[in-house]
Structures are given as structure tokens and as C-alpha cells.
């Protein structure tokens, strides 16, 4: 099988450790064949100013600390600036504009271009990652849409608290900006091999986010598809009520015992409207990515491949990412995230959402087990019961994700995406032994195609483990 192994190295590590030192470490210890980075540079700030690094993941990730220090610290607060000077003519007349370059850009921006050139000179493939729907799109923690472009719930409201800050993928303003950003990145970094778009879907981090999107843009898109947006909104609202206020102790026990949620919630699904809503959501996401793929092909002459990266099944059903449809629009590959520390955080968020409307269900002694079965996260059910058993893992705690479940998610994605290749994206957070286990699972399941997020969590011991897990020469 092919051996394609990459690590995402965010620019701040090139700034702190040096481009050549980082590449030496990756190639010598892990035998990488590719790197990914992003088009920004960073500076540390006073605590509480800017954004925390590493990201706090809506509070649950506050336990996270980096394996590799930045400016002498393993957690800190930072600000960013673009690593290049945008061509503002590409954004003429658009609602969203690129971030302005500043003194940090002038002083440090060259680091990204230096990293691209140095990696290419060593024979590595180079990926550049940008955000799909968080203008200005350079880094996930900075930016976001205006109110009109936010995804909405069936009743038209927008949740006050979210993990991500994605805009509606149905918004023509979000798409137009992303297309302009793609053209700008190709102009600024013509030597890259792959452009990766992160979150080109509706990230399913919270209970409310599962029931997006009924923004004015999404409703208009549904109408163009021949769907009645009001009918779909009623269906989504009915399903939300069924799994929150309508959730019973019997429902939880049945799911914990292995019953399919499709059977348990059949009363909210049988008229087909929920299926129509999910289909419409997937068509919105695919249309967005098709516009991006067409733009990248035109701007790069077909030389730079597009790689959207997504959540794994079964979350893709609710995030709107239809791997089979996306594979048909001209992407070069699809990245599927096995970010296993997020999975219990997400499931806990769903239970907390239920608790606000149905406290008794959230206190059920088997709700943790039921959640794990719904998302097909772990087959060892002895660890789960009440909701407190489902939580974000500590830095030295193995991730609650079974080998068979991780493998099945990647294999399902590969089947759907055929003939487009799928990369498994493993995460470096966690203890060395568990990281090596997860990297081995991901590499094998994806047929030798693995990317690891990210260098900041990869101590030298973990880089050595990555080499072992992937058969580095």
C-alpha cells in the first residue's frame, strides 16, 4: 500500500523552532512525506488577550497543553496576522474582506513561504489549510460571519454558545469570500500541492448545531431544490423535540442495549421530511465545495488539488458532508478526522443540551452508554453509565475510542468516496502509547494515508512513535 504520512505544522512552530529544524525533526524521526501549514503568523500576548493556544474547545479543552513550547510556554494567549499581503482587488465588492497585514506580517510573514520552499526542496508534498466558512479564514480562532450569514435553528434563532464560528454554507457571501481567498492563496503560494478546507460542513459539536441550517440563505436554497423550507423546519423541530423533551428512559435503555436510533425515533422520521432536510443540507454543502473546487482548478490550472476535511460517520449525516457526492465534484482527496478527544466532549454536549429540557433523561444511569452506541465510538461499554463518565480526556489519559470503531469509520468513508482517496487524520493530543495506537489504527484503516494534527502535540517521543506506527524507512 502507499505510504503517505504528513504532519500539520502551524506557522508558529516555524517561527519558534526554525523551518529547517522542524523539517529535520519530522523527516528524521517520523519519516514524513508531507507537511501542512496555514497562511498566518503569530505573536504571544498578555494572558486573556486574543485567543488561547491550544484552543480551549468551549471550555472542555482547558486541560490541553502543548507538548512543544511556544515562546517558552505550553499554553499561552496569542494574536495572528496574515502571512502574506492580500490582493484586495480579488475581494472588490464583497461583504467580507481579508485581514490587513501589519508589522507582524512584515516581520514574520516570510516564514510560511520559506517553509513551503524548504519542504518542496526536500521532496515533501505541501498542503496549505484554510477555514471554509470563517472569514478571513486563516485560523479557526479568529474571524466569523455577520449575523445574517450565521446558520439558524428551525425556529430561526441562532444559539448563543457554539464551539465553532462557521457561517452558513448556503450564504453566497461566504462562498464568494472563500473563492476569493482561494485565488489569493494560489497567487501567494503557487508552489503548494494541496489546498485543504477545514469545516466545509456544519460542525456537529453541540446539540443545537445538529439542527442547522435554516438561515435565510439555506431556506432559499431549499426552495430552489423544490423543497418546502417550512415543512423541513417543522420536521427538524419535531425531531429535536423528540430527542430532548420527548426522550424517555425506555428510549435510552433500548439504545444502550443496541437498538438503532432509526427504530427508536421512528415516530419522528416516518413521513420522510427529516430525510429530505438532511438531503437538502448535504446538497448545500456539496454545492459550496463544488464552487470551491471549480475556483481552485481555474486559479491553479488544475495543478493544486482540493482536499476538504470532515467529521467521520455517522456525524457526517448531520454535518451535511456526503462523501460520495463530494467525491464527484473534482476533489483530489478527502480528509476524515479521527480527533478522538473531541468525541466524548461532543456527546457530553448533546446530553447537556438534553438536560436543559429534560433533566430526568440526562440523569439516566445508562445515558453515557447510549450516547457511545449512537455515535459508534467505543465497544467497551463497561466504562460508561451516567453522564459524568463521558468527558474530555486529560493529557495523560487514553482516548475513549475503540480500534474497531475508528477503523469502521474510515472504511465507511473510503467506500463512499471511491475512487477518491481518503486520508485519516489522527490527533497528537494524549499520551505516547495511546497516540501510537491511534496512529497505527488510522494508518492501516486508510490504506497508508495518514495526516497527524498537529506538531505542537508531538513530542520527540511521539514523532518516533509515528515513525514506528507507519513503517518509516
What coarse outline follows from CA principal-axis ratios? Answer: globular
- The tally of helices reads 19
Task: Give the beta-strand count.
Answer: 11
Strand order of the largest sheet: 1-2-6-7-8-9-10-11
From the N-terminal CA to the C-terminal CA, the straight-line distance is 14 Å
Number of domains: 1
Give the proportion of residues in helices: 40-55%
Strand content: 5-15%
What is CATH's topology name?
Answer: TIM Barrel
Q: In angstroms, what is the radius of gyration?
A: 22 Å
* Class by alpha and beta content: alpha/beta
CATH-level-4 superfamily name:
Glycosidases
H/E series:
EHHEEEEHHEHEHHHHHHEHHEHHHHEHEH
Assembly state (oligomeric): single chain
Mean pLDDT: 95
Instruction: Give the CATH class.
Output: Alpha Beta
Low-confidence stretches: none
Structure description:
- With 473 residues, the protein is of the alpha/beta class.
- It contains 19 helices and 11 strands.
- The chain has an 8-stranded parallel barrel, surrounded by 4 helices. A 3-stranded antiparallel β-sheet has the order 3-5-4.
- Helix 1 (11-17) packs across helix 2, helix 7 (229-243) crosses helix 11 (273-300) and helix 17 packs parallel to helix 18 (432-445).
- The mean pLDDT is 95.
